[in-house]
TrEMBL record, chain A:
InterPro entries: NqrDE/RnfAE (IPR003667), NqrDE/RnfAE_oxidrdctase (IPR050133). PANTHER family: INTEGRAL MEMBRANE PROTEIN OF SOXR-REDUCING COMPLEX, NA(+)-TRANSLOCATING NADH-QUINONE REDUCTASE SUBUNIT E. It comes from marine sediment metagenome. It is found in: Endomembrane system. This is NADH:ubiquinone reductase (Na(+)-transporting) subunit E.
TrEMBL record, chain B:
This is Uncharacterized protein. The lineage of its organism: unclassified sequences, metagenomes, ecological metagenomes. It comes from marine sediment metagenome.
TrEMBL record, chain C:
Residues 136-242 form the FAD-binding FR-type domain. InterPro entries: 2Fe-2S_ferredoxin-like_sf, 2Fe-2S_ferredoxin-type, Beta-grasp_dom_sf, Cbr1-like_FAD-bd_dom, FAD-bd_FR_type, FNR_nucleotide-bd, OxRdtase_FAD/NAD-bd, Riboflavin_synthase-like_b-brl. The keyword Methyltransferase does not apply. The chain crosses the membrane at residues 6-31. This is Na(+)-translocating NADH-quinone reductase subunit F. GO terms for molecular function: iron-sulfur cluster binding; oxidoreductase activity. Pfam families: FAD_binding_6, Fer2, NAD_binding_1. It comes from marine sediment metagenome. CDD domains: fer2. PANTHER family: NA(+)-TRANSLOCATING NADH-QUINONE REDUCTASE SUBUNIT, NAD(P)H-FLAVIN REDUCTASE.
Amino acid sequence: MIAELASSPLDGPLVMRLLVIFVSAAVTENILLTRFLGMCPFLSISRQMRSAFGMGLAVVFVTTCTVVINWALYAYVLKPLEPYGLPAESLKLILFIVVIAAFVQFMEMAIERISIRLYFALGIFLPLITVNCAILGASLFMVTHVSGRQFGGWDALLYGFGAGVGWFIAIMLLAGVRSRIKEDSVPAALRGPGITLIVAGIMAMAFVIFQGMIKL
Amino acid sequence: MKQTPRDKAILERMAPGVLCAEGFLGDDPRDLSEIIAADTAAVEAAGLTHEQIARSLAAAMKTAMAELGRPAAISEHVAAVWREGMGRIPSPWTGDGVFPKGELGLTDTRTGRTLTLTPLSVHLIAAHGFYQGRGSRYRLEPHDIIAMFELT
Amino acid sequence: MVQPLQPWLIVLLAAGISCAVTTVLAALLIVAERYMVNYGTCTIDVNDGARQLEIDGGDTLLGSLKTEGIFIPSACGGRGTCSYCKVKVLEGGGALLPTEEPLLTAEEIADDLRVSCQIKVRNDLKILIPEELFAVRQYRGVVERISDLTYDIKELRIRLIEPDTLTFVGGQYIQLEAPAYGDNPEPVYRAYSMSNPPSDDQAVETIVRLVPGGICTTWVFQHLSEGDEVTLNGPYGDFRLSDSNREMIWIAGGSGMSPFWSMIRYMAEADIERKTTYFFGAVQRRDLFLLDELTELARKLPWFEFIPALSAPGEHDAWTGQTGLITEIVDRHISDGRELEGYLCGSAGMIEAAHDLLRTKGLTDDRVFYDKFN
């Protein structure tokens, strides 16, 4: 345990440590292409770059905020009570979902009030996000990092941001590829979802290369 | 699968009672993209494009509308009647604009087969390859249009 | 090392934490809703101080105005499909919304027009609306009579209950509300020209032609019966007799009869002896209606001529009147139209064809009138 911690890339200076967390969350542990979470909007909202951009931004924002809130909930409430026999592992699933749902509701209200333009550009994607498993996934993976070692609020922030950016990169890549595919040249049976899944699979294989680079 | 807000808005406007009493999808069990894909395949199999089909329909519509309800001959074996209506109807695709109400009845005098369509029908075929859902009043089968206008 | 708690205490603790978190979140949401969705009282300045409305913000502009008794014409009932409810917003409208863009042309955007069912009242507003809209009210009425004029045209007479009087000018229209029925989930509003003369101000009469698949006409034809209560609002529109004394050409088809049936009876009652020729076009004999009434009026009024025409009379119609397209009939009757005024009502295609013809006869566009709602 101690030996593993000693060799962890998290031991460097703070900036280095945060950078490592960010890159690892965004690239090596890309929530979409290595974990296959959030596939549903990934496939259906990647037809146009513009929609993909809006959805991606919304995911970045919500993931960052909910990971931090859920980190606080876990680190300050659930984990300290675990020694008393509290089933933190089961409870976190329920509570994280509630937090995400409430946060999305709150954001929808706030954005409509603050910027009606932004509300229409991004707000319409917000309700879809409540049920995006990538968001919940980011919070749950964050917990697996907290349980083994010190993982502070800044770490959680960078982790959540990284996970969101990873999802954003993936959907933008897919939308870019899809907008360049000439549907005519695809065999009829593979048009639409078929070719999209193949593209996503090839992208996932490409991301496997990053796997060995950093290990949290 | 989740839909984009735009797809959702289009489907909402196609529902019965939103833009017209019966809606645009009839009792077709397929979803919108399947309907469009199947009709597109049928049109392509005939070596045609949606634009070519829409052009024939639009020409017939123009000829018949100018007759203000009087029966018109489109070709040797196609008779047309324009039944006027008051008002205009918007397209389910927002931003497409509005189209005059009223309908065109086309009859193939050799076979007695009929087609019923509206100015909006022609637009939906040209712009979206959408021939409406089966069971809808204005559903058009691509091969029926092709047969009537002898497009192949 | 701490001791694990009793199992029942753990259950209680887990439940307590879940409840506490949910309660805190719910409380936060309620507080947020109270403060963020509440826009306080907003003032809407209509027509440069003509009316000052104090309303609770948060509703759409269309809805807020309706609550204050100002009715903007809207066919879809505020669902953002018909784009009729455009209003000029001079101040406080904020940025154009993506839901409005497809409904407005570039000139309309430059002219500060906004779709009033899409924008919310979030702050003080200054708006400009046509003066006539101040007179528009919502009416409750009861269907006194539905009768068949032809196989697909009905005449509808609604006696007003509350308010019981509607002051209007011949040629104006009302919007009839078709309530939710069958598959139709929400009320829609459709415009119908009034066919009764303005002196008959305790009722609304209109002529309705069945539109296949039409939400409102299907309701009128299949669901509405005498004695039913209905809701309508009006009067709208600036289609009316001009102030000049020029000779008039009226051209109509189908339910386009409505405004002229109102106008001619008004002119007969008020002894407005202004030379008028009324061309009414139909396809067959079965599409004609009010023939006897109008022929009788033409016989009594020396300044009024009624010319019905059939474009394709049937074999059994025994038609001895004019035959041809209505535009062809008008073409035959008028040689020089430079001193005439043209009034048109009918389908979009008929209006376009008739307008084109009148242009060739020398009628300038400012002397040709028709309803914009079509």
